[in-house]
Design brief:
The protein contains eight helices and no strands. It is mainly α. The chain has one domain. Helix 2 runs parallel beside helix 6, helix 3 packs antiparallel against helix 6 and helix 5 runs antiparallel to helix 6. The termini are close together.
Length: 223
């Protein structure tokens, strides 16, 4: 079935990408201006601040899933897709357990490489769960995370003291190396995994429900 213009990934992600960029910039301004840490935490990792783009992933996952299903591109195997996504989500915790069992120092930045490899495998599984949604989520993930990586680069070189450049426990290194380890690598692996697995799970369930409702509607099966 040919994709409608509305269901093409580039069109689907446009508004979500703009919203996500706006939240990223709002978060940065809030941290630089020392606004409430409950909403704009400067702690390493973000401190589960209420203003952040990670919270948008399940929301836009549902949005993408419903849009695709209504365009006639719903998931073909819901149960199998959910199974793949559950495995993909479990990969990083399992990778952490295996790394610890292998005697790796969990505070060593090189453990990030283990997580990065597990993330790429998880991304592949999430894509297989529902390829149409996987394609959309991958484009959205890049649209969301590339700006964050660039903000982190500027923050690290400027030593802004935000969660974008704070990383306790790292050995002394150049700003570029610090960015590669805490910015580029996680943003282009772990956070892509997070977007495709969590967004994929929420989107798959929402898409399956929307597809079922579409088929049940008068004339829906003929579309």
């Amino acid at each position: 079935m040919a994709q409608s213009a509305e269901s093409r990934p580039g069109n689907l992600i446009l508004v979500p990408a703009v919203i996500t960029l706006a939240v990223t910039l709002l978060r940065l301004v809030g941290e630089l201006q020392n606004w409430s840490p409950r909403f704009f935490s400067r702690a390493a990792g973000g401190g589960f601040a209420l203003v952040g783009i990670s919270w948008l992933v399940p929301v836009f996952g549902v949005y993408f899933g419903i849009k695709l299903a209504r365009a006639g591109l719903g998931p073909s195997r819901t149960a199998a897709g959910v199974g793949l996504l559950v495995i993909a989500i479990a990969l990083l915790p399992v990778a952490g357990v295996l790394a610890k069992a292998a005697g790796m120092n969990m505070q060593d930045r090189h453990v990030l490489l283990v997580y990065a490899v597990a993330s790429l495998i998880g991304v592949a599984l999430a894509w297989l769960a529902w390829p149409q949604l996987g394609r959309v989520l991958l484009q959205y993930a890049l649209a969301a995370r590339v700006p964050v990586a660039l903000v982190m680069l500027a923050a690290i070189y400027g030593n802004w003291g935000t969660h974008y450049d704070v990383a306790p426990g790292l050995p002394a290194m150049t700003p570029l190396h610090k960015w590669i380890w805490i910015g580029l690598l996680p943003q282009m692996s772990i956070w892509i995994w997070f977007t495709l697995t969590i967004g994929g799970l929420f989107g798959l369930v929402a898409g399956a429900i929307a597809a079922r409702g579409r088929k049940a509607a008068p004339g829906g099966a003929a579309a």
